[in-house]
Amino acid sequence: MSQIFKTLTDLREVIKDFEGFIARPTPRLHHPTLYRKSGVGKDDILIKGVRKKDFLFSPDEKWILPHNQMGLSFSVHWQHLKSAYKMKESRNPGKAIDVYFTLEKSDIPPGLAFVVDNDNPRHYFLTATEQMTVEQLVAKLKMLAHRMSVIKNGGKGL
Amino acid sequence: MITYKYNEEKIVALHFANRLNKPDISRIIESGDVKTPEEAQALSYFFWQMNEKAIADDKAGIQIPCEGSSEYWIEKIYNSWEGYMLRRGFISQWDEASERS
Predict the structure, then answer these.
(1) Minimum distance, in Å, between the CA of residue A143 and any CA atom of chain B
(2) How far apart are CA B77 and CA B96, in angstroms?
(3) Residue among B68, B82, B101 minimizing CB distance to A120
(4) Among A78, A143, B7, B15, whose Cα sits 20 to 30 Å from the Cα of A17?
(5) From A91, which residue of chain B is nearest by alpha-carbon distance?
(6) Mean pLDDT of B17-44
(7) Which pLDDT score is estimated for A155?
(8) A16 to chain B nearest CA, in Å?
(9) Do A79 and B78 make contact, defined as CB atoms within 8 angstroms?
(10) Residue A23: beta bridge partners?
(11) In this predicted model, what pLDDT tens digit does every residue of A84-96 receive, in sequence order?
(12) Are residues A117 and B79, on separate chains, in Cβ contact within 8 Å?
């Protein structure tokens, strides 16, 4: 499913119809759950598209270990989403930022779970709940991305 | 008290309070507590000033005193400070600064 917004007010009107949304702003042509080098700071380390600091890696960096307060960041509250959007926009001047989202109750790949941030109920982590290889995590993240809906910024470049 | 998941968050926040010459903000961060609505407002607006400064510093090649990008750490600080403002009853100041910055 794909919808279009032109302003953040439009976005709010669209997203509020989806009770239990879990959303993530993503620059146009970037992947919603995996990174490429141009999508992170130059001092961030990527391993097969996964930002090293986002998940708990084994020392040999071949495995992802379960952790309930580490994972990809998602917004579950409008104000958090709006701020995450503004931060992403400020880092990507002139580029369209789209919003990918899923619903809290929707199926997600086994071994992954959305968990509320213990320190901020407006923020969720997409966590690994079991040990898996980095390749397995990447496959699951791709699977989840495939199931996500997108609200596209129609104000820039559509 | 402000709860950080990582010590680096506080180090990065203090780094930018220093870069922006904000001793009052440094004192709030060091104390780990916001005591008044005015302090909440000041810290909330500082967050967005810090975000802009970090982008400018990245362009200028000025590094932060921690491993990882300023973008990563500022996102972490956002989550920690917003959660604190919610608990402490200063979320209206936080949200207003986010709206206006």
Answers:
(1) 24
(2) 17
(3) B82
(4) A143
(5) B55
(6) 98
(7) 65
(8) 17
(9) no
(10) A75, A101
(11) 999 999 999 999 9
(12) yes
Tell me the C-alpha distance between B16 and B42, whole Å. Answer: 14
By three-state DSSP, how is residue A33 classified? coil
| DSSP states of A84-140 | HHHHHHHHSTT--EEEEEEETTS---TTEEEEEETTEEEEEEEEE-S-EEHHHHHHH
Model pLDDT, residue A10: 77
**Minimum distance, in Å, between the CA of residue A156 and any CA atom of chain B:** 21
Looking up tokens 């990447």 gives A138
Count of A-B CB contacts under 8 Å: 68
Those residues of chain A that have pLDDT short of 50 are 158
Task: Give the DSSP H/E element, type plus range, for residue A73.
Answer: strand A72-75
Q: Which two tokens stand for residue B62?
A: 């000025």
Task: List pLDDT tens digits, range B6-21.
Answer: 999 999 999 999 999 9
Which of A40, A119, A123, A125 is best to mutate for the B interface (most B CBs within 10 A)? A119
- The CA-atom distances, in angstroms, between A96 and each of A124, B54, B75 are 24, 21, 20
The residue among B95, B5, B99, B94 whose CA lies nearest residue B42 is: B94
